[in-house]
Design brief:
elongated; 153 residues; mainly alpha
């Protein structure tokens, strides 16, 4: 099998790139958050990791893939997925925000918006197309009542 750039065009790689950007920006950011930021940041990183683990476990129990660009075998709509259509991506964004607070890198805050936009355009839209093709009205009903990032409609 031949390696291509598409093989590393995955959400964890984009999260890592944004985390590196936050770390670099932490060297030039004025200190703003202090001890509160460190504590809040650590809490958010932990919360994001727990959210991600719970969402991955829920998908594993449903025997469907967590790998982007693969065809799903089940539509998971209960539990965490009743509060967010993308709890793993939400967890990624929470981890990034937590890292920014932890690093006291206020100049890196726009990276959260950058990450959310990138994930939405590179992955979520394609995944929603796949879910529509695979599950039709069932996906449409779930999407009508559950927001893409967080909350019920």
């Amino acid at each position: 099998m031949r390696f291509t750039l598409r093989d590393i065009d995955i959400p964890p790689a984009w999260l890592a790139l944004h985390l590196v950007g936050a770390w670099v920006l932490s060297f030039v950011s004025p200190p703003v958050f202090g001890g509160f930021g460190r504590l809040a940041g650590q809490g958010l990183v932990l919360a994001g990791l727990l959210l991600m683990a719970a969402a991955v476990a829920q998908m594993a129990l449903a025997k469907t893939t967590v790998i982007p660009r693969r065809n799903p075998s089940a539509l998971v709509t209960g539990g965490l997925f009743s509060l967010s259509r993308n709890p793993i991506y939400l967890a990624d964004a929470i981890i990034l925000l937590g890292a920014i607070l932890w690093l006291d890198a206020i100049l890196a805050l726009p990276l959260v918006a950058s990450f959310v936009w990138l994930i939405q355009t590179r992955f979520i839209r394609d995944e929603e197309t796949r879910l529509t093709e695979a599950f039709g009205p069932e996906f449409d009903l779930w999407a009508a009542r559950t927001r893409r990032w967080v909350g019920r409609k």
